[in-house]
Design brief:
The complex is a heterodimer of chains A (255) and B (295).
Chain A lengths: L7 H24 L2 H21 L29 H8 L6 E6 L5 E4 H6 L2 E9 L5 E9 L1 H8 L7 E10 L2 E8 H4 L5 E3 L1 E2 L2 E2 L9 E3 L12 E7 L12 H6 L8
Chain B lengths: L3 E2 L13 E3 L3 H26 L3 E2 L13 E6 L2 E6 L2 E4 L6 E3 L5 E3 L22 H28 L2 H6 L8 H12 L14 H24 L2 H6 L1 H7 L2 H29 L1 H10 L1 E3 L12
Parallel strand pairs in B: 1-2
Antiparallel strand pairs in B: 2-9, 3-4, 4-5, 5-6, 7-8
The chains are: A alpha+beta (255), B alpha+beta (295).
């Protein structure tokens, strides 16, 4: 290799560093380019479509035996809403609390905790998958969402159910939304109990959505109000949920 | 066409120094599509791993549960722990300086976990959502191009002719001989260089038919919706957290393949090799007839 002026090793090392550096900063430039991001988002749309194609709309999430439950079910996100009204409800054991159901419904409802508890409940031991990568298995009990939606009489224009929550991040309220396939899925419940105890505050007392075929950030805690809507792009940040708006997580969280 | 033949035509036996057709267009297109897709998937995957740098076996696994692999930091020390073995990795894993010289580390209970350093992730700053955006899009490119390539390689005979390990190549003597040749960086010359040797075939077959399909299958098993739709995948891998661990291990296997693959390209003659995977044309290495130790 006498004809090479630059020693081969140094050449390769320098070349790799230069190419690597260019590729890296190139990726960051692309990452901040809105057109490129919209193109990448086609991936999410494709996943959503493909998953709906291969999954029966009533296919059940895995349910586990009591022996398979996590010894400790960690909590994350907001574990204690700071609003004065939530604090007041917490102080009196949600005795004066009521779930509001409105929007595109024929029969808007105010359902007290006692009334929710009196509805037929479904219990399920399921796995909670955080978008971060961890999983925990716990037992959830509460009325099916479909029971409540049927009582409220959904308008034929309704396409989404929005969950307005008591918690917020830096004064931006937490909310989430799901389509009607998930809303009427048999395992979609408003959990009032967890692991055979009343729902702990850190896990979303008094009521938490369980939509078992999607990731953790869809499992809205501290649910105060259900709203039926025909569109979600005109609500808050327009992407259908707090994490979708603030960080760009997928609205379809079955992936 | 002096000195250049399409080797499929086999008008005459090519010899050292001849320029011959080596890689089909389908192989070249797939090779480069796959190379880009894998690099993006690896780097965005490391970003996703950074969101929870612990691995578990079974159905569940979170911070209170025992992890078989963990990257973290304690005080000033970054560490990688596998089972009970802990290796200090300060500066590279668990605790490192970012491009602005700011020290990043993973403190327990802080959600901004920092396992893999900025130069190894897409994007280079911490963003799980952006990592997923890249990862979930490029997963389509990987899966669709692999499916097309597999199908096309079966149809055009690439698998049967070039990747199929022939009976005599399975003999321990042949494999041992090939291993010795590789270790001494003695590569075939002349027409013999057109055939993949047994170690090459085994590594390519492992990547195409084992590691890449496993990556895709374990990736799908981490989807909570597909756990409902394709329940057998969840049972096949023994739970979502096992699938996540296998996904990580197979990614490590692909990185190992990549390193050896690049080393072999450089050892065998980078210009010759890169030319053939770009243009398809390969200059056969000259015979070593004059060497005294030739077999």
């Amino acid at each position: 290799m006498t004809d090479l002026v630059i020693p081969r090793r140094r050449f390769i090392g320098g070349f790799a560093t230069a190419v690597g550096g260019a590729a890296l900063s190139g990726c960051d430039v692309l990452n901040d380019n809105e057109t490129f991001r919209e193109t990448l988002r086609l991936g999410e749309t494709l996943h959503h479509t493909a998953q709906r194609l291969v999954t029966d709309r009533n296919a059940l999430a895995a349910e586990y035996a009591p022996s398979q439950m996590s010894p400790v079910f960690r909590s994350n996100g907001n574990v204690m809403p700071e609003s004065a009204s939530y604090q007041a409800h917490l102080a009196d054991g949600f005795a004066n609390w009521a779930l509001q159901v409105d929007g595109l419904v024929g029969n808007p409802l105010r359902i007290t905790l006692a009334q929710l508890q009196a509805l037929p409940a479904r219990s399920q031991i399921t796995r909670h998958d955080c978008v971060e990568g961890w999983s925990a298995i716990g037992k959830w009990s509460g009325p099916q969402l479909s029971t409540i939606l049927r009582q409220a009489g959904l308008s034929s224009r309704a396409r989404y159910i929005v969950f307005h929550c008591a918690d917020s991040f830096a004064s931006r309220p937490y909310y989430e939304s799901i389509d009607l396939i998930e809303a009427f899925h048999p395992q979609t419940i408003l959990a009032l109990r967890m692991n055979d105890q009343p729902l702990p505050t850190a896990h979303g007392a008094p009521a938490r959505l369980r939509v078992e075929r999607q990731l953790g950030y869809k499992q809205a805690k501290f649910v105060m109000r259900l709203e039926a809507r025909d569109r979600i792009d005109n609500l808050h940040g327009g992407r259908g949920g707090y994490w979708e708006d603030s960080a760009g997580y997928e609205w379809y969280a079955g992936i | 066409m002096t000195g250049s033949v399409r080797w499929e035509d086999d008008v005459r036996s090519p010899k050292g120094g001849d320029l011959v057709r080596r890689h089909r267009l389908s192989t070249r297109i797939w090779h480069w599509t796959n190379a880009v897709a894998l690099l993006v998937l690896l780097m965005s995957g490391l970003m996703i791993f950074n969101a929870h740098p612990r691995l578990y076996w079974g159905e569940y696994g979170a911070n209170p549960d025992p992890a078989w692999l963990e990257i973290g930091s304690r005080g000033d020390q970054g560490f990688l722990r596998v089972g009970k073995v802990e290796v200090p990795t300060t500066g590279v894993l668990g605790r490192w300086r970012d491009a602005n010289g700011v020290t990043r580390s993973r403190a327990f209970g802080v959600t901004r976990s920092r396992a893999f350093p900025h130069w190894a992730t897409i994007p280079s700053h911490y963003s799980l959502a952006d990592g997923r955006l890249w990862h979930l899009a490029f997963a389509w490119i990987l899966a669709l191009s692999l499916a097309l390539y597999m199908l096309w390689s079966l149809v055009n005979g690439h698998v049967g002719r070039d990747l199929h390990v022939r009976r005599e190549q399975w003999s321990p003597r042949h494999i041992w001989h090939d291993l010795k040749d590789h270790a001494r960086l003695r590569f075939p010359t002349g027409a013999a260089a057109l055939d993949y040797n047994v170690l090459q075939k085994l590594s390519y077959v492992t990547v195409i038919f084992v590691l890449l399909p496993l990556m895709i299958a374990t990736g799908l098993t981490m989807s909570p919706n597909l756990n409902a739709g394709l329940r057998w995948l969840l049972d096949l891998f023994g739970g979502r957290q096992s699938a996540r661990s296998i996904h990580f291990i197979c990614a490590g296997g692909l990185v190992a393949f990549f390193i050896v693959h690049i080393a072999m390209v450089f050892a065998a003659g980078p210009i010759r090799e890169i030319r053939s995977i770009v243009t398809g044309w390969y200059r056969l290495p000259e015979d070593r007839a004059q060497e005294s130790d030739a077999p």
